[in-house]
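Hi D.,

Good news: the full-assembly prediction came through. Inputs first.
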Amino acid sequence: GESVGLHLPTLSVQEGDNSIINCAYSNSASDYFIWYKQESGKGPQFIIDIRSNMDKRQGQRVTVLLNKTVKHLSLQIAATQPGDSAVYFCAEKSAGRRALTFGSGTRLQVQP
Amino acid sequence: ETGVTQSPTHLIKTRGQQVTLRCSSQSGHNTVSWYQQALGQGPQFIFQYYREEENGRGNFPPRFSGLQFPNYSSELNVNALELDDSALYLCASSFAGAGELFFGEGSRLTVL
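Then the structure:
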């Protein structure tokens, strides 16, 4: 079936470095993508989203890149801080579907 | 803080019992979705409610049922609990048709 997956289960970076979290998806009909951050014991928190008619979108310290040709999504975090330590999920949705389909998550560890 | 509140935050049940989880959506949101998140995995879509009716369902058996009330709050009911139902149950609210979901902090269910 269709799935959303992540390349790396754990990413460890030094404080102040830039982080890149990758995500592959297989549903060619996906037209909406979203990144969530989940801290331990909490619910997922919205970071940034992007529609399939765009290939880049920027927020505060975060950038999402979408490559529809290879069905790849990435989240870039600039100047990573200890507070960025969490599990990051990408999720996708296609037109007409009610559900977001989540990947299994990447744990980001920020070393001081 | 998303404005989505869930109760209870933690509960323990035994196999065969029934459980009801509650969710109050963010003010103005008319759609509620429920997700199950097993330990170490991404959230899995259970179902969505809009205008007090279920309008989308994931791959969950009929013993998972729900309700949405006129004030858009919602309940998730699970009958005949099984050990594998142990998980974090997440409620998310949104505007109908919107991609972004706003999640609550979840209800942690343990089935013994």
